[in-house]
Request: fold
Amino acid sequence: MNWKPEIDAAAARIDGHAQVTPVMTSATLWSQPVALKLEQLQHTGSFKTRGAFNTLLSSEVPAAGVVAASGGNHGAAVAYAATRLGHKAQIFVPEIAGPAKIALIEQTGAALTVVPGEYANAAEAAEAHEAETGAMQIHPYDRPATVAGQGTLMREWEAQGLEADTVLIAVGGGGLIAGALAWLQGARKVVGVEPERSRALNAALEAGKPVDVEVAGVAANALGARRIGSICFDLAQDHLGGSVLVSDEAITEAQHALWRAHRLLVEPSGACALAALRSGAYVPAPGERVAVLVCGGNIAPDPLA
Reply:
């Protein structure tokens, strides 16, 4: 697939719907300056808004509206985008989504159902709703329109003057990193960062194909995909520069570091990429310029008080 024209078209489509999020350089988070993209400041607190708007604006939405299964962030993005565009939305989330994300979805006015279990259980409920009502299901990561929408983030970051040899990106189902790989096409090194207890991409690369993995840990409600998306896996085989794992403790430490250094409040998934740098899971070469994508901020402030 020729991704760059698709991402260019997505950028034009979502212009005025998704925000251009700020960038900064931190001199305190690591021993060398680190470029940060603050996507947690996007509408609904994550990059997912980009893919949601691109999918809706490039599709014929039925009268029954849309349905989505989500660990929280995708559901919030679909709910926000659908209601802004005048469509009905039914969102299914697992119990582990957490109160901040559930409240965010409720604020949009979309219909919300909390399902016992994990993301896979919410996905089953969404599929049943789709079959019953004819609503259009919006997949959180493994569809071309979703990946193209997420790819607008890296396109935007480069337009903002990104100076980096390597970009560290957290991975759940793979939509975000797939978009980055699709846009960059090997022009910069992209390293996927996953929690040790939710390692869908790492396990797939190890096995040579997407495989089911266990889902657990502090970032499970955002990065807890049971299996990596096929689009991400194919792009990773061609362009990925590395795959590393970080502990829950390293993720939590990176969350606190972002708060202490810059008063940036992020959820565990949003700190996952930085955790690779601070914990030593990823060790740059001498002189290597590193950028970190901060992808989500849907957490209540209490844990960092």
Remarks:
- The radius of gyration is 18 Å.
- The chain has two domains: 3-47+143-304, 49-137.
- DSSP finds twelve helices and ten strands in the chain.
- The mean pLDDT is 95.
